[in-house]
Specification:
alpha/beta; Rossmann fold; 5-stranded parallel β-sheet; 9 helices; about 10% strand
Length: about 200
């Protein structure tokens, strides 16, 4: 993509700069991941986000299976947040084998398995890519913070791509009542370990 001068000439200056910086990042990916260095990319609306995500996933394909990565679009992340923080919160299945007619319990078990699988990949992959990040519910903010905090604690890199500007994303964190310095803690973790692009 970077070698196509014609294509690069059509991109905005910010995108050309970002793709150049991303190219340097992937040239030294193993070292970057050892440092848990990721990206926090703001102002990436739909078309720009898709272009960036395609570039990232194409670059990562060359590192498999040595480096594991997991990509989620925000819609899927929000669904996972809902399942984990709302629907499954406090639910504990009975220890008995569900009866064939007990459809609700079977559906809960399936949903739990899917949710656990997604959580496992988000929390254990060498690199997590989350595109389209745009929380609209408090439980999404809380789940995002939990995932980023856990990955930070495990020294794992994340690439967060959001259509929002920093102040707009900060406003979304205020969806959580009594959150205090939740946004500042989140931002500090990302700034400690991420390259930033607007």
């Amino acid at each position: 993509m970077l070698n196509d001068v014609h294509l690069m000439g059509k991109l905005p200056v910010q995108d050309r700069d970002l793709l150049s910086r991303l190219s340097q990042y992937f040239d030294n990916l193993e070292a970057r991941l050892r440092e848990a260095q990721g990206w926090f990319i703001f102002n990436a609306r739909r078309e720009r986000s898709a272009r960036i995500t395609r570039y990232i996933t194409a670059q990562l394909a060359g590192f498999r299976p040595l480096i594991s990565s997991y990509h989620l679009v925000w819609r899927d992340f929000a669904l996972q947040a809902y399942m984990s923080e709302v629907e499954m919160a406090g639910w504990s299945p009975t220890e008995e084998v569900p009866q064939p007619g007990n459809r609700v319990e079977q559906e809960h078990r399936i949903a739990t398995q899917v949710s656990r699988g997604t959580s496992f990949h988000m929390l254990s992959s060498d690199l997590l890519i989350l595109s389209g990040l745009a929380p609209s519910q408090a439980y999404e903010v809380l789940y995002l913070d939990k995932i980023v905090a856990t990955r930070h604690g495990r020294h794992l890199a994340s690439i967060l791509i959001t259509p929002l500007m920093p102040h707009e994303l900060a406003d979304r964190f205020h969806l959580v009542k009594g959150a205090g310095d939740l946004w500042q803690r989140f931002l500090d973790r990302m700034y400690q370990t991420s390259l930033i692009a607007l």
